[in-house]
Amino acid sequence: MSLIDERIQSCSETIKELKTQKAGLLNQIFSQKLRFPDFNDEWTQTTLGEIAERITRKNVGNTTQRVLTISAQYGLIDQRDFFNKTVASTNIEGYYLLNKGEFAYNRSSSTDYPWGAIKRLDNYNEGVLSTLYICFAILKEDTSFLAHFFETSQWHNYIQSISAEGARNHGLLNIAVSDFFALPLSLPSSLAEQKKIADFLSLIDERIEVEEQLLKKYEEQKKYLLRNMFV
């Protein structure tokens, strides 16, 4: 049992270290303090509206029954997987229909996301979201690069600046759609650099996921042994 406890502690510490390392790398990379040596072009200044289009397609005919929510750990996830039930309206034809690879901004303020959260749909081919979300598709940039960017806090200052006074009404930030799409962005002019950055950060994510799965197995093993050894 002590050996399992040691492994659980080791996994937990590794996960914490990897997440700290990733947070530091995110800030250095997206502030351009750290770059790959084979790229030296200046990054392009643009806005979200110039590289993305808003999605307002509806779930007409109930194309899907998968209602999504945003999770800090899992991103856009089926409400049934996250809450073990659906907490949406019974009629979801008016919800936005999101396809895999597209993004959604949840304007709800929370402890994990004080200025809301922007996540890409990765886990399913499609899903639906309340019209309180702002949904969009990236037109010409590397979507994985943008997915990692939105995990940083670098866009928070702008969101804070456009939030109306007394904006938090039951935790919902009062942000106009037009203001949201005016979000300023700094992007590598080369898609190759965007992809290299995204691939590098994704490798860290994969390592974290491996450690989290290992931790889960150790914890399940410990529970099993406790149930069966001390009876």
For this entry, give a set of tags.
10 strands; four-stranded antiparallel beta sheet; 231 residues; 18% strand; alpha+beta; 7 helices; 41% helix; globular; two-stranded antiparallel ribbon
Report on the structure:
The structure is a single chain. The chain is an alpha+beta fold and 231 residues long. 41% of the residues lie in helices and 18% in strands. It has a 4-stranded antiparallel sheet. Strands 1-10 form a two-stranded antiparallel ribbon. Strands 3-4 form a two-stranded antiparallel ribbon. Strand 3 (68-71) and strand 4 form a beta hairpin. Helix 1 (2-30) packs antiparallel against helix 7 and helix 4 crosses helix 7 (191-229).
Q: What percentage of the residues does DSSP assign to strands (E)? A: 15-25%
Topology pattern, helix = H, strand = E: HEHEEEHEEEEEHHHEH
CA radius of gyration is 20 Å
Mean pLDDT across residues: 90
For the biggest β-sheet, the strand order reads 2-9-6-7
Name the structural class. alpha+beta
What count of helical segments does DSSP give? Answer: 7
**How would you name the oligomeric state of the polypeptide chains in this document?**
single chain
Distance between the terminal alpha carbons, to the nearest Å?
15 Å
